[in-house]
Amino acid sequence: MTRILLPTDFSDNSFEAIRYALLAYRDIQCTFYLLHTYTPPVYQTEYLMGSPGLIGLGDVMRETSMTQLEKLKSRMEDQYGNDQHTFVVHTVFNTLLGEISETVANESIDLIVMGTKGATGAKEILFGTHTVHVIKKAKCPVIAVPPKYEYEAPIEILFPTDFEIEYGKDTISQVLTMARQHKSRINVMHVHTGYDLNAAQERHKGQLAKLLGNTALFHEVPDNGIIEAVNAFQVKNKINLLVMVQNKHTFMERLFMEPVIKKIGFHLSLPFMVLPQL
C-alpha cells in the first residue's frame, strides 16, 4: 500500500497535481490523503484572544473546507474510479507546512504530490512559496506538477547527478516504483566538469547503477552548467519526469533563491520529483 499525500487549496493547479497522482499510480494500491489547511484571514492576536466577533469563525471555515474536500473526493471517485485507490479527507486549522510534516510522520506517507503554484501564483514564479518550503523540509519524496500540465506517463525519466552522495535503496525507492509501473527508462545524466570522477564518485555511481539495474541509461554531457544541461537534454529527448536529490550540491538552492525564470534560464514544463537525502 502506497500512501500519498495530496495537499490542495482547490486551485486548478492543485487539481492537476491530484489528477497526475491518480493516473501515474493507477495500477498501484494507494491511499490518497486529501489535505486542506486553513487559517482565518484575521488570525493574529484578536483570534487568539477570543474576540467576540470571531467566535465560531474557525468552525465555519472547517465546515467549508470539509465540504469542498468531500466534493473533491467525489469528483475523483467519479472521474477516476479505481478499486485500488482509497481516499481520506483531512482538514485542520494549521499552517500547510506544519500539517504536512505531522501527516507525513503520523500516517507514514511515502510521497507528496502537489502543484507548483497556488491559486494566486504569478506566471513568472517557478515554484510557489508553499512548494519551496515543502520540498526543502519534507522527509519523503515530493512531486511538483506545473500548471496546465497534460498528463504523460513517465516513460522517460531524467535524473541529473554529480555522484557526490551515496545512494541507498530508500532514497530512490519511489523512482523505482514508478519505473517498474511504467516500464520507464531512467536517464542518469552527469555533467562533465573537465575532471575525471574521483574514487568516491565512482563508488556512488556504481551504487546507483546497481540499484537502478537495467532501467538506467548513463549519459555524460559537456560542462555547460547543470541548468543549461537539463534544458538541452529536454530539448533533444522527450522527458516526462525530472528527478533530483535534495542536497547542497544540486542547483535547487539557486532555483529557489532566483524565483524569476528568465534570470536563471530554467524552464520547467514537466513534473519534478525531489528526493530527500536520507
UniProtKB/TrEMBL annotation:
Family membership noted in the UniProt record: Belongs to the universal stress protein A family.
Occurrences of domain UspA (ranges): 2-146
One protein family per Pfam: Usp
SUPFAM superfamilies per UniProt: Adenine nucleotide alpha hydrolases-like (SSF52402)
Coiled-coil ranges per UniProt: none
Species annotation: Pricia antarctica
Protein name, as recorded: Nucleotide-binding universal stress protein, UspA family
